[in-house]
UniProtKB/TrEMBL annotation:
Record keywords, A-Z: Membrane, Transferase, Transmembrane, Transmembrane helix
Membrane-traversing stretches: 178-204
Keyword Ribonucleoprotein assigned: no
Cross-referenced InterPro entries: Methyltransf_25, SAM-dependent_MTases_sf
Positions of the Methyltransferase domain: 23-111
Family matches, as Pfam families: Methyltransf_25 (PF13649)
Protein name, UniProt field: Methyltransferase domain-containing protein
Gene3D superfamilies found in the cross-reference section: Vaccinia Virus protein VP39
The keyword Metal-binding belongs to this UniProt entry's keyword annotation: no
Species this chain originates from: Candidatus Woesebacteria bacterium GWA1_41_8
Molecular functions per Gene Ontology: transferase activity
Amino acid sequence: MSVILPFTYPWFFRKLLKGVMTVLDLGCGDGKFMAILNKERKYKVTGVELFNAYIKSAEKTGVFERVVKGDVRKIRFPPKSYDAVVCSQVVEHLTKDDGKTLLSKMAKAAKKVVIVGTPNGHFHQEAYDKNVLQKHLSFWESADFRKMGYKTYGQAMKFIYGENGLLNTSLGRSPLRYSLYLLSYILSPLAYFYPSLGAHIIAVRKKGRNV
């Protein structure tokens, strides 16, 4: 099994996917993140992606059983059709209303757990990769998820990785950036327990209860 360091972004997903066999990955992108999570092919994963270039890349990873072309706002799946439904760095690309609707749909499609990863608070991003879908349209905080029955965790340190973090200053272009990476990792347990400190939010909802 590949080693994933505790408190890193993939570690949260791996930890929360324990005991899961089937996964629906909404907005799977180019598949690189799922390639980390599913390196040992322990999950049977269906990916959903709208951007053609990303679909081709995701298929090449070999970690998906299939990749479906579809808009996560419109696609439908039968209730309780997957053990886990995940979306990583997706809801911020939707309007707030569309994001909340997606979260509700995810909860219906999941048998066991829903996992969402998104930047914590405002993080401006325009389109790139010739993909207009990459633009950020909404911004999320822990309270948004807690109101919908999710438990939240923070990942990485916002004062380092956030929109106004130290890595987005001249320090991020200097050799000192490596010290900032290390500092963020050392402090990462703080973000775990105090999500407002995190650069990212990991929101999880286990069916029938909070985590």
